[in-house]
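Project standup — Tuesday

K.O.: blocked on the structure for the chain from last sprint. Re-posting the sequence here as requested.
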Amino acid sequence: MLSCDSKYVTVPDSEIESASSWSINDQPPSFPKCENLKNNQHLDCFRNIIEIEINNFLNNKVFPLDSNEYILTLKIDTIGKFSLDKLNPSNKLDNTSINLIKSAVENIPNALPAIKTNVGEFVEVSFNLPFKLKYE
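H.V.: unblocked you, prediction finished:
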């Protein structure tokens, strides 16, 4: 009789890091509308939907702006839910404005989550989205 005790098996950190890094074969997050598109068209479709959703939520809101160009760092979790990780420059907006932007991001419909294909698992991803606030 033979058995295996997995608590004695170790995997080097470099191997874990290599297997965890994003590759061309992995599936990025998506929306059903964008699924049949390839490469840049897929990415453009995905970003356009996000921008439309955020702008629709923020429509008719007034922001006290020193700058209207921002970089939103968005997270998409393993079930496709969006959250705002960072907002740059954040020092140009008051807390009310930042909370409105957070709410706009959280109200984006769930995406199809990213899939790390070498392990067949849904994964959390982050990406930067350049964004312009509209103001009067």
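K.O.: great, moving the ticket to review. Residues 99 and 105 are 10 Å apart (CA to CA). Residues 39-58 form the longest helix (20 residues).
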